[in-house]
Q: What sequence folds into this?
DNA sequence: AAAAACTTGACAAATTTTTTTAAAATAGGA
DNA sequence: TCCTATTTTAAAAAAATTTGTCAAGTTTTT
């Protein structure tokens, strides 16, 4: 029941960009600052760009920049961008995965737990994560 | 952020055994009843046995039986037995995995979320899961 | 035109999950 | 007691997923 390495990297990356919202930063710099394999990070940034969390600029002087105010981005946004919908069990997203379907008494537990976790993750925005760093 | 297939199987299995606490049931029967690959289930049952959630009997007339009252076993017990300590991020269990260690502002979020999820899972015992089935 | 930097897709390595196979143990009967 | 069918146990193999790499292509600035 863990987030993946990829998601962890994505969060670090958004954190880095959030700390300098006005700067366009190269993949290489983020990779070094946050100890993330560069080519893997490139891919992650693509997903974040598609989710409109970061903007990309190509060519010389290119790089990535946060696409909106850090307080407008929360942990759930990033996790969703990378992993897709959060679920504890695949059947909590799509019931066809639940071979026992209708009479599965555990199913509702996953659904509720999922809602709970989502609610919590939505509360943590990146402005807050930066602030707590400065303390 | 999902539980594994293995954990899902383990829960179904404990559920099956909880429904007949006085019976010793063969792997094969559980496997068929709950749509779990038989040999994979064997492995899962070993882990459950080590965690003292089920008892095993070998030889002819052998099989598995629930080791304590269903109300004494909760979802967290089973997940812990299979996956080890629940964490959202590996660094929430052991800080040495967190390359950014001391100044990682996300770390406390995982720790708290973990506590939350554990608390919820601990509340769901198998007596309850059976009851809701009968309704 | 050349250099710098992102984009994309294919591929490879590592890890985890699932399945298969062979070994060990036991109840029960000859 | 000893054999055998039955069942668990354990190790190994296969499949799937995750993580990481690389190279060719595209865009932008100088």
A:
């Amino acid at each position: 029941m863990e987030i993946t390495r990829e998601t962890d990297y994505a969060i670090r990356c958004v954190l880095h960009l959030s700390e300098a919202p006005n700067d366009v930063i190269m993949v290489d710099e983020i990779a070094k600052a946050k100890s993330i394999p560069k080519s893997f990070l490139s891919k992650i940034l693509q997903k974040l760009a598609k989710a409109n969390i970061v903007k990309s600029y190509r060519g010389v002087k290119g790089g990535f920049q946060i696409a909106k105010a850090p307080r407008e981005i929360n942990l759930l946004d990033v996790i969703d961008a990378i992993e897709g919908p959060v679920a504890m069990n695949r059947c909590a997203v799509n019931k066809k995965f639940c071979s026992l379907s209708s009479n599965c008494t555990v199913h509702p537990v996953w659904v509720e737990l999922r809602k709970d976790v989502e609610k919590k993750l939505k509360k943590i925005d990146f402005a807050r994560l930066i602030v707590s760093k400065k303390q």
User: Anything to note?
Assistant: Chain A has a mean pLDDT of 87. Residues 26-28, 42-43, 45-46, 56-64 of chain A lie near DNA strand C (CB under 10 Å from a C1'). The helical segments of chain A are 5-18, 27-34, 38-50, 75-83, 107-123, 126-134. The first helix of chain A runs from residue 5 to 18.
